Amino acid sequence: MSPVDQHLATRRSAGLFDFSFMGLYEFTGAAALARVLRGCGEVHFATDIADYAAWTLERFARTRAFRWTAECAADWREPWPGYVPTRYEAKARREGRASSYLVFRREDRLAHTTTR
């Protein structure tokens, strides 16, 4: 799946596409991301690198702007509804690496104070 196809599929499913590699936008932290999300927006994050998942959890935990939605291990071991797998994920699975699927929800109390 090309980056454009992935972007379109993600937009159709109301997800968030990482386009930072294109140099179009760069977030400097979870708090900065919270400022651009509306209401109780969600950040969906998938990776097959355990250290990257841990790093992301740590960064989001540092801010009160987001809440990790996982209630049990299956919540981060299985992709969210509408998830579109990538060729990178397929390669990771072939190489024996499991993916983590993290969902963070912007806290509603901030929706009333930080949106414009």
Structural features, described:
By secondary structure, this protein is α+β, with helices and mostly antiparallel strands. It has one domain: Rossmann fold. Helices cover 42% and strands 14% of the residues. It has six helices and three strands, in the order ααβαβααβα. The protein has a three-stranded antiparallel beta sheet. The longest helix has 12 residues, at 50-61. The protein is globular and about 40 Å long.
Return Rg in Å. Answer: 14 Å
The side-by-side strand order for the widest beta sheet comes to 1-3-2
Q: Count structural domains.
A: 1
User: Helix-strand pattern, N to C?
Assistant: HHEHEHHEH
Helix count, per DSSP? 6
Give the SSE layout.
Layout: H1 3-12, H2 30-36, E1 42-47, H3 50-61, E2 66-68, H4 73-77, H5 87-94, E3 100-106, H6 108-114
Antiparallel strand pairs: 1-3, 2-3
Outline of the structure:
The protein has 116 residues and is an alpha+beta fold. 42% of the residues lie in helices and 14% in strands.
Features:
single chain; about 120 residues; alpha+beta; Rossmann fold; 6 helices; about 15% strand; disordered C terminus
